[in-house]
Automatic annotation (TrEMBL):
It comes from Paenibacillus taichungensis. The keyword Transcription regulation does not apply. It comes from the Bacteria. Keywords: Hydrolase, Lipid degradation, Lipid metabolism, Membrane, Transmembrane, Transmembrane helix. SUPFAM superfamilies: alpha/beta-Hydrolases. This is Acetylhydrolase. InterPro entries: AB_hydrolase_fold (IPR029058).
Length: 486
């Protein structure tokens, strides 16, 4: 919950209890409570914005007014409460107070942890079209491959400006979460009020001559800023991060002119969508997306019309990380594009045209996995497997190929971390949306994020900035994770 929400809510709940418990309430104090409540409501509404989970709390502002009206027309009968009536009233007050406190906690305006690095964060978005590629997922033959790209970059710590919202069209995203991931829109009703630590179109910090560049590729059904928890921490440490929205494979794409590109399943659902022949082919498009974006980044570094990035991108030190299908794309880029020097795959099955050779990727590589993902069919019930549209023998055969592709992950001195008590989406922002999601999945989102962030910064600091590496001292079994090194 936000600060003013807490202050307003606690004041009103305390005032409600006082009005119920205290028999002789001075009119001046009741009027004072009403005035303070109204002022807090107005300040909260103007600064933070009102939202539906706070409606029960908003109604509490009327309670002093009701009491004042009742005191004017009170009679002896009204003043004489029986014991039963007092008990019933007290219980109702407790229930109402629980609802008043509970709704904002269950449906919060979530926030991101404060960045720990010495830099502030700026952000700018681009609409880039690859004129050399036709868009294969639209009915119009002339369409070219068009991508939304968001770049985050270091600014001076005291930079002021307009704070960037989490997503650029919250209503469209809330609908997409419902349509694509079948999550209730209610969970995403406060997306418009979620703020990041980034300042729109701020000036790039000149504290360093150049900053290493890291590409980010989301998961299938994901979006370019789905890992804001991770991106902000990286940028605060002195990196330029470039997030790609893979059109028609993302949750949704929203273009500057208002056009919306929805997720396109190509008629593939459930287990059918996960087949290697389909996913390997689809991944070719994602690899070409990443290569095109890198080409555009090079052009931006050489000739930025706004002057922001001119000569400030360290193109000799480019990294990449991705979640799920974006993690698979990262591995393909490591093997396919010499510009990418180091990469991280967060819980991504190794889809793609190329297999990791027995001797390894040949570049610094870090694999992260959720323990439930690595467990495969062992943790899947028969009902869950049936819901995917397959049988247990078929699923087990599928995982044989998954594990075979994982076999050389650590070869050549690379790393594989398995996080305990995590799920596939623990490597994204999603579980921050509501504790309901965390409780239903049995995960601790911020705990997982802390491990991910510490590891990500350590890995890229070493391989892109030449700083000492802490990972080697962490190899082995730990309470929250295990770490292997090849």
């Amino acid at each position: 919950m936000r600060t003013l929400e807490w202050i307003y809510l606690i004041f009103n709940v305390v005032m409600l209890v006082w009005l119920i418990v205290c028999r002789n309430k001075p009119r001046k104090m009741v009027w004072g409570g009403l005035i303070i409540s109204v002022v807090l409501l107005l300040v909260h509404g103007v600064i933070e914005g009102m939202r539906w989970p706070m409606i029960p709390a908003y109604l509490l502002t009327l309670v002093p007014l009701i009491v004042l009206i009742a005191k004017r027309s009170k009679s002896a009968d009204v003043r004489k409460f029986g014991r039963v009536r007092i008990i019933v009233t007290s219980l109702l007050v407790l229930v109402y107070a629980a609802v008043t406190m509970g709704l904002p906690l269950l449906f919060p305006v979530f926030s991101f942890d404060k960045p720990t690095g010495p830099y502030g964060i700026g952000t700018v978005s681009y609409d880039w079209t690859d004129e050399s590629r036709e868009e294969l997922l639209t009915s119009t033959a002339e369409d070219k491959r068009e991508l939304m790209v968001q770049i985050w970059y270091p600014t001076d710590k005291d930079t002021k400006g307009t704070t960037a919202t989490y997503v650029n069209d919250p209503k469209v995203y809330a609908t997409a979460f419902n349509d694509v991931l079948t999550l209730p829109k209610l969970l995403f009703s406060s997306l418009s009020q979620v703020k990041t630590h980034a300042i729109q179109e701020a000036s790039l910090s000149d504290a360093e001559a150049k900053y290493p560049v890291i590409l980010f590729s989301h998961g299938l059904h994901g979006y370019e800023n789905q890992n804001t928890f991770q991106v902000e921490q990286l940028v605060s440490q002195g990196y330029i991060v470039v997030g790609i929205n893979h059109t028609y494979s993302s949750l949704v794409s929203v273009f500057p002119d208002g056009r919306v590109a929805q997720f396109e399943s190509e008629g593939k659902e459930g287990f059918d969508q996960l087949q290697f022949n389909y996913m390997d082919k689809l991944n070719e498009t994602w690899v070409k997306d990443a290569q095109f974006v890198l080409d555009q980044v090079e052009k931006l570094s050489a000739n930025d019309a706004n002057g922001r990035f001119n000569g400030h991108m360290d193109l000799d030190n480019i990294g990449m990380f991705g979640h799920s299908f974006g993690g698979a794309t990262t591995v393909q880029m490591l093997m396919d594009d010499p510009r990418v020097k180091a990469g991280m795959n967060m819980d991504g099955v190794l889809f793609g045209e190329k297999r990791i050779p027995a001797e390894g990727v040949g570049k610094p590589f870090f694999m992260m996995s959720a323990d439930t993902t690595v467990a495969g069919t062992i943790v899947m019930s028969d009902d869950e497997i049936a819901a995917m549209g397959t049988t247990r023998p078929e699923a087990e055969k599928y995982y044989e190929e998954v594990y075979a592709r994982y076999e050389p992950v650590t070869a050549g001195g690379n790393y594989w971390m398995e996080l305990s008590d995590t799920k596939h989406l623990s490597f994204s922002d999603l579980y921050l949306v509501s504790p309901i999601l965390e409780w239903s999945q049995g995960v601790d989102a911020r705990k997982a994020h802390q491990i991910v962030n510490d590891t990500t910064i350590d890995f890229f600091n070493h391989y892109l900035k030449g700083q000492p590496l802490q990972l080697d001292s962490e190899v082995g079994e730990h309470t929250s994770y295990s770490l292997k090194k090849g």
